[in-house]
UniProtKB/TrEMBL annotation:
Keywords: Amino-acid biosynthesis, Branched-chain amino acid biosynthesis, Isoleucine biosynthesis, Transferase. One of its GO terms (molecular function) is 2-isopropylmalate synthase activity. It catalyses: pyruvate + acetyl-CoA + H2O = (3R)-citramalate + CoA + H(+). Its EC number is 2.3.3.21. The lineage of its organism: Bacteria, Bacillati, Cyanobacteriota, Cyanophyceae, Chroococcidiopsidales. It comes from Aliterella atlantica CENA595. Pathway: Amino-acid biosynthesis; L-isoleucine biosynthesis; 2-oxobutanoate from pyruvate: step 1/3. Belongs to the alpha-IPM synthase/homocitrate synthase family. This is Citramalate synthase.
Length: 536
């Protein structure tokens, strides 16, 4: 691995170590391996895999990677310096890090005198010995060492001479990178710039600095950028900014800022376009909902809602987009809502395969209907299938697949041994292909019973309905001060083997709102079968 190009930056991912220190995030060995392989595929050069010796999972993770190594990334094992007054060769943690079998190791040590005397309860001299012995021992065992200077910025502010001594000690012992950590995450960008500049002046020429920032002041990305601008050449962070407390610097923001805006080489050119996919896959693996509004990779990062914005973006995307979304593998979306203008309607219609222009009276009619319904409580931005049906209706293209004449729902609350359990029956009356049908079904609640009765009535005519599944049901009270007569909005998400779609219903009667959303959900699924259309 060469490190001589002036525009080369080394991205160091710590999702599998610092990322897993986030409250609520827990991963299995299989999850860790999957994430490591995804980061490797993305072209990340250094992947910190964990702290072998701290827990059996991390020990096993490194063993498994020895069996099936990554393709291009260096997998790095992490550990602290030796404990005070113990020989490095006799510290079990250092034995564990050697057993991990990686070429590179990262050792964190104390830079802040307060941490030495209060945290480690040892002397400033012994801390220097701990740093020196640990790194020298690992070097003599054939490892290349990255030194993470924990609490660097706070330490430097309190006692710059001692903090610099710790760095010099690490360099003298053989560390190849000195990573300045803003462990408490409270430093601001101008302080980072100044202190990184000071360090570069104080340390020998060719010292390689890295930066590791936390987001407690919401400046982790800005801080890392400031350090790079001063001369740091390694950037540590995590995918989606996962990490202890408020998180670490988010690599999904840092990488595009560094590569697309500042011109550094971080990832191979063809890989940065896979950033959005990597972000979403990793959020799926760690079982945390993706942040839809995340910069660069969020679903809304290039979503345009205001009519003025959409009108301009349609003419030239530069008007409201800071980069082209496909550069990071994301895509532009047009959102439909009461804030829309004709441009939103026309752009959205195009995604459904419908060509309209501003002169078409149907476009104006659709916009007017949209605004009317939104003022009654409908919300189409999350229910694009209902909006597609609304457009088809206005254009006289909504096929009448069935006609519902009415429905009845009956609920029983049966007292069991410890609690009540509910059982519901629904009856529906409808006409399909000229035939009148009366059908009934049961469910564990009124909406499930209604959905079952409708499917039972329709399945002989439309067998594909058996593949549809109701996957989500969301209820929102719109005017909570009206108590039990409040208006309710129901969103229903359905899916088949290929697609998901969402529909909406609004009423003061929750059953009626659910009925409208469920019926449109079934209708839209049938339309998807007959016409290939796009939906949310
Ligand atoms: C800034 C960072 O994010 S650093 C990484 C933090 N990550 C973690 O802590 C997750 C993994 N940690 C663990 O599994 C455990 O804390 C272990 C296995 C490391 C240690 O567990 P224990 O031996 O039970 O110690 P405990 O967690 O209570 O305390 C930490 C010990 O490490 C010592 N320590 C802290 N930093 C260092 C350091 N840089 N070098 C050497 N020792 C250190 C503390 O002084 C304390 O020592 P003590 O046991 O003599 O009081
Ligand atoms: C090493 C590390 O994770 C920190 O100082 O924040």
């Amino acid at each position: 691995m060469t490190t001589d190009s002036s525009h080369q930056l080394w991205i160091y991912d710590t999702t599998l170590r610092d990322g897993t220190q986030r409250e609520g995030l827990s991963v299995s060995i299989e999850d860790k391996l999957r994430i490591a392989r995804e980061l490797d595929r993305l072209g990340i050069p250094f992947i910190e895999g964990g702290w072998p010796g701290a827990n059996p999972k991390d020990v096993q993770f490194f063993w498994q990677l020895q069996e099936e190594p990554l393709t291009q990334a260096e997998i790095v094992a992490f550990c602290s310096t030796r404990r005070p007054h113990v020989k490095a060769s006799e510290d079990p943690m250092l034995q564990a890090i050697l057993a991990a079998g990686t070429r590179w190791v990262t050792i964190f040590g104390k830079s802040w005198d307060l941490h030495v005397t209060e945290g480690l309860k040892t002397s400033l001299e012994e801390n220097l010995e701990m740093i020196s012995d640990t790194i020298a021992y690992l070097r003599s065992s054939g490892r290349r060492v990255i030194y993470d200077a924990e609490h660097w910025f706070d330490g430097y502010k309190q006692n710059p001479n001692y903090a610099l001594q710790t760095l010099q000690t690490a360099t003298d012992a053989g560390a190849e990178w000195l990573v300045l950590c803003d462990t408490n995450g409270g430093t601001l960008p101008h302080e980072i710039s100044q202190i990184v500049g000071d360090v570069l002046k104080a340390m020998p020429l060719h010292t390689q600095l890295g930066i590791h920032t936390h987001n407690d002041a919401d400046t982790a990305v800005a801080n890392a950028l400031a350090a790079v601008r001063e001369g740091a050449s390694m950037v540590q962070g995590t995918i989606n900014g996962y990490g202890e407390r408020c998180g670490n610097a988010n690599l999904c923001s840092l990488i595009p800022n560094l590569q697309l805006k500042l011109g550094y080489n971080c990832l191979p050119k063809d890989r940065i376009t896979q950033l959005t996919q990597a972000s979403r896959l990793i959020s799926e693996v760690v079982n945390l909902a993706p942040d839809e509004h995340a910069a660069f990779v969020g679903r809304s990062a290039f979503a345009h809602k205001g009519g003025i914005h959409v009108s301009a973006v349609e003419r030239n995307p530069l008007t409201y987009e800071h980069i082209q979304p496909d550069k990071v593998g994301n895509s532009r979306r047009i959102v439909i809502s009461e804030q829309a203008g004709l441009s939103n309607v026309i752009a959205k219609a195009r995604t459904f395969g419908i060509e309209l222009d501003k002169q078409n009276p149907a476009a104006k009619q659709i916009l007017q209907r949209l605004k009317e319904l939104e003022s009654q409580g409908y919300q189409f931005e999350a229910a694009e299938a209902s909006f597609d049906l609304l457009m088809r209706e206005a254009l006289g293209k909504r096929q009448q697949l069935f006609t519902i004449h009415g429905f009845q729902v009956h609920c029983d609350l049966v007292q069991g041994r410890v609690s009540y359990c509910s059982n519901a029956q629904a009856t529906v009356k409808l006409t399909v292909n000229g035939q009148n049908i009366l059908e009934a079904a049961e469910g564990n609640g009124p909406v499930a019973a209604l959905d079952a009765a409708l499917r039972k009535a329709l399945v002989n005519f439309y067998p594909q309905i058996a593949e549809f599944e109701l996957t989500d049901y969301k209820v929102r009270i719109l005017d909570e001060y009206s108590g039990t007569s409040a208006k309710t909005r129901v969103l229903v998400e359905c899916r088949n083997n290929f697609q998901r779609w969402t529909t909406v219903g609004v009423s003061t009667n929750i059953l009626e709102a659910s009925y409208h959303a469920v019926v449109e959900g079934l209708e839209y699924g049938l339309l998807l079968h007959s016409t290939p259309v796009l939906s949310n």
